[in-house]
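Could someone model zinc ion with this protein?
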Amino acid sequence: MKLVHLLPVGKVDGALLRDLGRAIPRSLPVACEIFPAELDPTPSYHAERQQHHSSEILQRMQALVRPQDWRLLAVTDVDLYIPILKYVFGEAQMGGPCAVVSTHRLHQEFYGLDRDDALLGQRLLKESVHELGHTLDLRHCQDYTCVMASSHSVEWIDLRESTLCDSCRSKIKSRPALAGRYR
Ligand SMILES: [Zn+2]
Ligand SMILES: [Zn+2]
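Reply:
Sure, complex below.
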């Protein structure tokens, strides 16, 4: 069984992380464990943007990858960006092994709405499966209900399923990177 380690970056709600670890294996044929360490997001903070540069977090994660690790998925509450975009929900290394997702813009409170933990959990799951899909070399999918559809707002994330469409599924089934059974 392929193992995904969930790496907290800064202060992350423990219950949210544990729920994510239980939910990801329902979307991908993997097991999840919480990584036994944390990463400090501070070195990737850029004061002029008041955001954290996600590529720098991915770079610093490299030092934490151990030989037995298959994928390392960082989860953070800080706001992420890459220089060409205002913000990103996450970023991944195409082909693996590292990916990062942020809950910052997944909270209903960010948009002035009432807190909704169930919705937050769903969005985090979809973003996590999406970024893990990129680590499996999947690119964006035209099917807007597929977890690999691109999304620039939470409304688009909410339209997606938390699973891969048949086409994306067949793409990675043929690769040794992720042999296993899908739902
Ligand atoms: Zn993407
Ligand atoms: Zn797809």
